[in-house]
Amino acid sequence: MTHKDVDWKLGLIDLDGTLYRGGRPIPGSAEFVVRLRERGIQPVFFTNNATRTPIAVVQHLERMGVEAFPHEVVTSAQASASRIGPSAADGYVLYIGEAGIHEALREEGHQPLSVRHPKVRERLNRVKAAVLGLDSQVNYAELALFCQKTAELGAFILTNADVQLPAEEGFLPGNGAIGAFVETASRVRPYVAGKPNPDFAGYALSRFGICREDAFVVGDNPETDIRCGRLFGLYSILVETGVAEAARRAANGELDDEPDEVVGSVGDLF
Ligand SMILES: [Mg+2]
């Protein structure tokens, strides 16, 4: 069996390393999304990146030539915000992060409070939950404040635990590295909302009212995309355009989370 043998209703599509690499589209990615739409398969742009708002994701995809709409974007920031219960309704949600988290919290009806807000200290006793996402401007004092509050709450949500981000010069430390800092200092283990948490796939499908049998996931990272798909019970397709070495190891059966199918790129799909 291959992906062509099933009448899918929805595809969860990873972004970086799958549709583009940094600022460059992967050849065939725009046409791949067009083919999905022509076949009546809902494309869902499924990303651990919590920094961008859905509109910013759409604008980035448009620069890559891919047509997308904000409601088709599912981010780990949204999954994080959806995880916070109504008990936080009368208080603030303290966060480290960029626009993607702020907007996701607002959309879920929470009151976001940035560690950088001028009144953060006077509002601190009304904080009910804490969310940590990537923020390239975060400083020691802000991390200290977040660690102290996390220790007091006994819980925090990490949008994603990606350890390294691909960059022009090798890599940049990812949100998982900052999460390890907070975990060590606060002695609190986070709830990680993004891939490979299978609940993230469940959250995405529930937004579209689609069952797992009718959806597939495609991505370049065996440890996040494929593991997430396998844990949730989705047909999982690995592309070799991103984290190349890991993809090769998976193809050789050296990883726990073997994809159902390995293809060169999304250009080979449908
Ligand atoms: Mg990727």
From TrEMBL:
GO molecular function: phosphatase activity
Classification via Pfam families: Hydrolase_6 (PF13344), Hydrolase_like (PF13242)
GO cellular component: cytoplasm
UniProt keyword list: Hydrolase
Record's keyword annotation contains Hydrolase: yes
InterPro entries: HAD-like_sf, HAD-SF_hydro_IIA, HAD_sf
Superkingdom, taxonomy of origin: Bacteria
Protein name: HAD-IIA family hydrolase
